[in-house]
Amino acid sequence: MNVLIIGANGQIGQHLVRQMQQSAELNPIAMVRKEEQKAKYEQQGVQTALVDLEGSIDHIASAAQGADAIVFTAGSGGHTGADKTMLIDLDGAIKSMEAAKQAGIQRFVMVSAIGVHHREKWMASAPHYSAAKYYADMWLMRSGLDYTIIRPGGLTNEPGTGKVKAAADVERGSIPREDVASTILAALVDPSTMGKAFDLISGDTPIEQALKLV
């Protein structure tokens, strides 16, 4: 399965590319927005696409040609303002869904944020971020695509454990980015995750087993 990773230079994206390179089932296509990022991945033997999410749907759709699935793990980052959050985390996500349709790709995995499906749980310090994630998720659920929405808790750079807690609603907690990437990989090859959205934190259940329970 060829997978376009939108946000491949982000911290989860980098784990995702590495894990896919080690997989016998999945082949990464790294979508990045800077020439130096493209060069880095090409040196690693990774197929790349140079596309800016603030550009056109056509450009994203062109990058997706030959892909069987799309993973959206892009984000504006905490150092930007609300305007960039809306342009990347919301509009960029929606343009990516439209590009998937244009390219004839049905499978779409979204990396969202824990609790955003409940307005009362939106981050008081960054309600625009929660709103962007919420409405991007809602758009995806109504898109007709074969979606999986993964809503991880607080992200850490600790080594992954391979064990998580996944459910429609879980208490706030944290999870290594490496385990989020591993969960994305497992979801891509597990058809039972299609049409599902769930919170994700560290836990005691192996990832493949946890996905069967959501």
TrEMBL record:
Q: Which Pfam families does the UniProt entry name for this protein?
A: NAD_binding_10 (PF13460)
Where in the numbering of this chain does the NAD(P)-binding domain appear? 7-191
- According to UniProt, the name of this protein is NAD(P)H-binding protein
